[in-house]
Specification:
By secondary structure, the chain is of the alpha/beta class. Helix content is 46%, strand content 19%. The N and C termini lie close together (9 Å).
Length: 120
């Protein structure tokens, strides 16, 4: 299963990558929207775990739209500390989406990811 984790914060990115690896998966990672687009085009993910605000011109919603265009059944997990109601509105055209509020503990992320990754 192709899993792509997109997070611009270095510590959060490393923690998510390690968590998913400990769950038995081999995720790919990207730290910017541009890197994420390259990874999505290279190998369309089955699961995309992304921050909404990537700190540049491309948002996680735009990366998710591309991922679902290339792989219709791509499961998207948005992890964000920003306003979730706004995120849900911006992502309303997408399907198969989950939303996790940051900050989250590793235990909370593990439970959320466990459900999502084992159902994908």
């Amino acid at each position: 299963m192709n899993i792509l984790i997109v997070e611009d914060d270095e510590q959060t990115h490393a923690a998510m990558m390690n968590l998913v690896r400990r769950m038995g998966f081999d995720p790919r990672g990207a730290r910017t929207g541009v890197e994420a687009v390259d990874e999505v085009l290279r190998c369309a993910p089955h699961v995309l775990i992304t921050d909404w605000d990537l700190g540049e011109r491309l948002s996680g919603v735009e990366v998710a739209a591309l991922a679902q265009h290339l792989r219709e059944n791509c499961q998207v997990v948005f992890c964000s500390g920003n306003n979730m109601a706004s995120l849900r509105r911006q992502a309303s055209h997408l399907h198969n989406c989950s939303f996790i509020r940051k900050p989250s503990t590793l235990a909370q992320l593990r439970e959320e990811f466990k459900t999502i990754l084992h159902s994908a």
